[in-house]
Model the fold of this input.
Amino acid sequence: MSDTTKKRLATVWLDGCSGCHMSFLDIDERIIALAGLIDLVYSPLVDAKEFPEGVDVTLVEGAVSSEEDLHKIQMVRQRTKILVSLGDCAVTSNVPAMRNPFRTADVYDRAYRENVTFDAGTPFQVVPKLLPYSRPVHEIVPVDVFIPGCPPSADTIFYAVSELLEGRTPDLTEKTRFGA
Ligand code: SF4
Done:
C-alpha cells in the first residue's frame, strides 16, 4: 500500500541526451532523504510502464520533437499538478532545435542515408515520426517551473525539488543559468 503522506514524483525523458537525468542522480546520498518524501511513480529510472494519474510533480527532460513526445507531454500535463521543464532542451529546445532550420525530409536523409555505411533507408516503423520543428515544452503545454542549465547541477535540481515538495516555488535566480 502506498504512503499517502509522500508526494508522487515522476520524471519524463523526451528529446534529450539523458544528461539531465544523470544530473538528477548526481544528488548522490541525498536521494535517500528524498526517498523518504516521495514515491517515484514513473521515470526512466524505475520500471513503470504507464504514466499514472494524480502525479504531484513531474520533471521533464528534453524538447518536444516527435509525435510520440507530443502525445506524451499532453497526457503528462493532464495528469500532473506541477510540471517542471528540466534543462535547456525542455526550456528552449536547445540542442534538438539545431535541426529546425532544415526540412524534416533532409534531416531524415542526413541521418539515415548520407551518414550510414550500410542498409541505408529511413525507418517508417518503430522510430516515432518527427514533428516539423523541435519545440520547448511550454510551447505545447503550460509549464509551472523552469530549471535552465545543460544540465542543471545536482545541487540545483535537489534544491528545486525540495522546495516544490515543501509547497514553495523555488527561486532559481542565483542557482543556475542557460548552458550551466
Ligand atoms: S539540457 Fe543538456 S544535459 Fe539536458 S538533455 Fe539537453 S543537452 Fe542533455
